[in-house]
Amino acid sequence: MTSQAAHPTIEAGDHAAFMEYALEQAQKSPPEPTNYRVGAILLDADTNTIATGYTLELPGNTHAERTCFVKVAEQRNLLEEEIGKTLPKNTVLYTTRILRLGNAIKVVYVGVKEPEKFVGQNVGRARLENAGIKVEHVE
């Protein structure tokens, strides 16, 4: 994997700017009729970007969020399984992976709510909130 490009400096708490950065990542995703073009950024507690990802960035049908976790594992010279089990292909199990990280992730910001028609009840969000992880929708 190639090294990460320099990340923009974004002021802590500027959720709109972080969402814009995630949208920039999404634009890198190749358009496919069966996939959403999603971008993700993973921040440390000091709001420094530690990984970015976008749909189909890595071989296979990789989700943006999984790409972030794979990059963090590589940066830290870990097997991906050491930061959680191989990420399944749906958001409920992305939630499981976040929960397995203990208190490493405290807030999840989302730019688009899952459509009720497409997803139904957002069980993943409820699990995160029940575990004390804030889920904030940035409009």
TrEMBL record:
Q: What Gene Ontology terms describe what this protein does at the molecular function level? A: catalytic activity
UniProt cross-references to Pfam families, sorted A to Z: Inv-AAD
Domain (CMP/dCMP-type deaminase): residue spans on this chain: 13-139
| Gene3D superfamilies membership | Cytidine Deaminase, domain 2
One Gene Ontology BP term is: nucleobase-containing compound metabolic process
Q: What is this protein called?
A: CMP/dCMP-type deaminase domain-containing protein
Please name the source species.
Glutinoglossum americanum
